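Dear H.,

Thanks for agreeing to be a second pair of eyes. The structure we're designing against is below in C-alpha cell form, covering all 250 positions.
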C-alpha cells in the first residue's frame, strides 16, 4: 500500500504508548499519529506534510461496518437482514465506540488544538468514537484486513456472541406497541433534567402514558435518555400494565 502520510514529530508521545499497547508496527507509527490528529490541532496553520484524521476516520468507519457485519452474518445464520442491521447498530454506536476508545487510552493520545482541549473534546463521546474509527483505519492502512479483523474481534467478540433480541430491538417501538395494545393512549417522553458539563452532559427523561410515569432513564443525549427510559419501562411493565388498562381503557 502506498504511503499516504508523512513522518513527523510532535511534543506528544502518547501515540507511541498506544501503539505499543495495540501492537502497531513501529515503522508505520506515522499512520497512528495521523489517526490521532484532530482537525483542530493545526489551528489553521497545517504544514504541507501533515494530515488530520478525517480520511482515516472515513476508512475506519467502512472497515468497522464490514468486519462487524461479516462476523454477525457468520455467527447468526438464521437472522434476517433487519435483525442483522439492528445487531450491528448496537456494536458500532457512538456510546460503545467511545467506551472502547477510553479503555484503550485513545483519548489521552489525541492531538487537539488549544480551543478543542479547553472545551473538553478529549472526553467528548463523538470525538472519541471518531478517533476509534480513525485508529481502525490506521491499522488497516498499515497492516491490512487481517490485523484490523483481529483488533475488532479482540474488542467486540464477547458482545457480539452474547447479543439477545432484547439488546437490539427498538425499545421505544416495543414500548409504544405494548402500551397501545393495552390502553387508548400512546407513549410520550419528557425531559426531566439535564446535568453535567458541556463536554459530558447527562440527560434524564421519563416515559409516560398520559400522566403515569412508566420509567425513567439517562444518557449522554436526549435520544439516549429516552431509549433508556423505554427500557426501564419495559423492565417494570408488571408495575404499570394493569394501571394503564384501568386508567385508559381502549
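And this is the sequence the design step returned. I haven't edited it by hand at all.
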Amino acid at each position: 500500500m502506498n504511503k499516504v502520510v508523512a513522518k513527523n514529530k510532535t511534543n506528544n508521545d502518547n501515540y507511541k504508548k498506544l501503539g505499543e499497547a495495540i501492537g502497531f508496527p513501529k515503522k508505520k507509527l506515522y499512520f497512528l499519529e495521523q489517526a490521532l490528529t484532530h482537525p483542530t490541532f493545526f489551528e489553521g496553520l497545517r504544514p504541507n506534510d501533515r494530515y488530520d484524521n478525517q480520511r482515516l476516520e472515513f476508512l475506519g468507519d467502512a472497515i468497522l461496518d464490514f468486519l462487524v457485519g461479516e462476523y454477525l452474518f457468520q455467527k447468526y445464520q438464521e437472522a434476517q437482514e433487519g435483525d442483522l442491521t439492528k445487531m450491528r447498530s448496537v456494536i458500532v454506536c457512538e456510546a460503545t465506540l467511545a467506551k472502547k476508545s477510553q479503555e484503550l487510552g485513545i483519548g489521552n493520545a489525541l492531538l487537539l488544538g488549544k480551543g478543542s482541549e479547553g472545551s473538553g473534546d478529549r472526553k467528548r463521546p463523538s470525538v472519541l468514537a471518531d478517533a476509534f474509527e480513525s485508529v481502525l483505519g490506521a491499522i488497516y492502512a498499515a497492516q491490512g484486513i487481517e490485523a484490523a479483523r483481529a483488533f475488532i474481534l479482540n474488542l467486540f467478540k464477547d458482545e457480539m456472541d452474547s447479543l439477545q433480541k432484547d439488546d437490539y430491538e427498538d425499545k421505544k417501538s416495543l414500548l409504544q406497541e405494548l402500551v397501545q395494545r393495552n390502553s387508548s393512549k400512546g407513549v410520550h417522553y419528557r425531559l426531566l433534567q439535564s446535568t453535567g458539563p458541556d463536554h459530558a452532559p447527562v440527560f434524564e427523561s421519563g416515559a409516560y402514558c398520559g400522566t403515569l410515569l412508566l420509567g425513567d432513564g439517562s444518557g449522554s443525549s436526549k435520544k439516549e435518555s429516552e431509549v433508556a427510559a423505554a427500557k426501564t419501562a419495559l423492565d417494570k411493565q408488571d408495575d404499570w400494565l394493569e394501571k394503564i388498562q384501568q386508567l385508559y381503557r381502549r
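Two observations from my side: The CA atoms of residues 40 and 116 lie 7 Å apart. Confidence is low (pLDDT under 50) at residues 1-11.

Warmly,
E.
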